[in-house]
Amino acid sequence: MKIDVLLGLQWGDEGKGKVVDFLAPEYKVVARFQGGPNAGHTLEFDGIKHVLHQIPSGIFRPDIINIIGNGVVLDAVVLRREIEGLKKYGIDASKNLIISKKAQLILPTHRLMDAASEKAKGVSKIGSTLKGIGPTYADKIARQGLRVGDLLLPDFQKRYETLRDKHMNVLAFYNEPVELAEAEAAFFEAIEYIKQCRFADTEYLINNYIKEGKGILAEGAQGSLLDIDFGSYPYVTSSNTMAAGACTGLGIAPASVGEVYGIFKAYCTRVGSGPFPTELHDETGERMRKEGNEFGSTTGRPRRCGWMDLPALRYAIMLNGVTQLFMMKADVLNIFDEIKVCTHYKLPDGTTSEELPFDMDAVEVTPVYKTLPGWSQSLKGITKYDELPQALLDYVAYLEQQLNVPINIISTGPDRTQTIIRKKIKEII
Ligand code: GDP
Ligand code: IMO
Ligand code: MG
Questions:
Q1: CA distance 197 to 212
Q2: 237 CA → ligand 2 middle, Å
């Protein structure tokens, strides 16, 4: 049995949470492999909307094991809030949640450093979610981070203080007033609280599950265009958001990866700073934002909106080896008579390119569009692929022909039930 990986192909918020929740019954295990509380994964069913930040999106299925992998950066305070929040829906997350001992801990000072660094950058700020993601991954790479397993060590307090004091020096450099007492107290309370969860060397567990033939779905966070190596650097997040990240973030061999499900919106959005070639600064963009309710699940910030960008999507498909595509939020385009798709870019020197330039921020590319007819009708109540409006079927056919990967799910609304399967995704496990 191989691990299937599900990830976002754009700038995040593609609808990963919805699809993981939808596919979860086909699996025994759902595992997050990178990111942390910067993620906001929305699930909707029975008229209730849930937003998960660190807990994998299989948590509403009590028979599924949910793993927070070693590649994740974990905020204990946020986790505590998430576990408590789920209780009112009868979910005891601590029962089927396992946390890697090797996941890195986000300290209160990591969040402060994130905020101070962003403030110091001024207009060139990344637009970080201010959850401490960058500084925590920086400490991991600098080999000085604290890990979940360290919580159980007798000298954890001392290790914490050593790192905190280093951080205080950094904060002094930024000349920021530091008020830590309250956040520190909440951190230590949360640390005690999360000890009710099972901590494990999850790489052993996962590889044993593979041997036992248990189906595993790896849940990506953020999106490929925010990847630390291949995203629009420096306007990226601090982890590898790609399929390869599932190997390092869970401890599995590349040969263990099976299907790679690539999730994309029928258009594009981005939250935070950085290049976005097809961004619409006009009324069309406003309409997209309103119709798609494009406001961040984690920060509430308005998301920037624009048309589909084929060079960017092709790039993400290439980097991830996507085997199946799922198109989300098709219903948001119901309101448009015409739909545009960027087929290639025009560069400042007049030449054209289907590739993303090295320095997308400095090189202003002009998208060249193909216009397709819209379907101008509601998709409510449609449950079968063949019953979708012809113009939408044509849009899907055009994208498939351009991308060379089958589009097997079309999502027509936020609810679990508003999901149209075109072809069977996988034999039932
Ligand atoms: P994620 O981070 O990839 O899990 O995505 P988010 O949850 O941050 O953002 C996706 C948003 O779109 C959420 O509010 C979802 O409820 C919503 N959503 C997901 N699929 C659809 C869809 O097909 N149509 C519409 N209208 N909304 C959707
Ligand atoms: P999900 O998993 C959309 C963006 C931030 C910022 C940049 C760096 O819900 O798709 P960070 O806090 O990671 O240092 O911010 O990345 N970003 C996301 N945008 N969806 C996300 O997650 C994101 N996580 C981070 O807006 O531009
Ligand atoms: Mg999100």
A1: 24
A2: 6
Which has the closest alpha carbon to 200: 305, 66, 308?
A: 66
CB 353 within 8 Å of CB 344: yes
Ligand 2: nearest atom to the Cα of 128:
15
CA separation for the pair 225, 97 (Å, rounded)? 29
Burial 88-121 (b: 16+ CB within 10 A, else e): eeebebbebbbbbbbbbbbbbbbbbbbbbbbeee
Residues 6 or more apart whose Cβ sits within 8 Å of residue 255: none
User: Is the alpha carbon torsion for 243, 248, 254, 258 positive or negative?
Assistant: negative
Residue nearest to atom 11 of ligand 1 (CA): 15
- Closest atom of ligand 1 relative to the 296 alpha carbon: 8
Number of H helices, E strands in the chain: 11, 20
DSSP character at residue 31? E
> Does ligand 2 come within 6 angstroms of the Cβ of 225?
no
Active site residues: 13, 41
Nearest to 59 by CA among 39, 87, 100, 35: 87
DSSP 301: P
**Residue 273 DSSP symbol:** S
**156 CA to centre of ligand 3 in angstroms:** 33
Q: Tell me if the pTM is above 0.90.
A: yes
Report DSSP letters for 153-190, one per residue: STTHHHHHHHHHHHHHHHHHHTT-----HHHHHHHHHH
- 419 within 8 A of 402, measured Cβ to Cβ: no
Q: pLDDT 10s per residue in the chain (429 long)?
A: 899 999 999 999 999 999 999 999 999 999 999 999 999 999 999 999 999 999 999 999 989 999 999 999 999 999 999 999 999 999 999 899 999 999 999 999 999 999 999 999 999 999 999 999 999 999 999 999 999 999 999 999 999 999 999 999 999 999 988 899 999 999 999 999 999 999 999 999 999 999 999 999 999 999 999 999 999 999 999 999 999 999 999 999 999 999 999 999 999 999 999 999 999 999 999 999 999 999 987 788 899 999 999 999 999 999 999 999 999 999 999 999 999 999 999 999 999 999 999 988 888 899 999 999 999 999 999 999 999 999 999 999 999 999 999 999 999 999 999 999 997 776 533
Q: How far is the CA of 42 from the centre of ligand 1 (A)?
A: 6
CA distance 289 to 282: 11
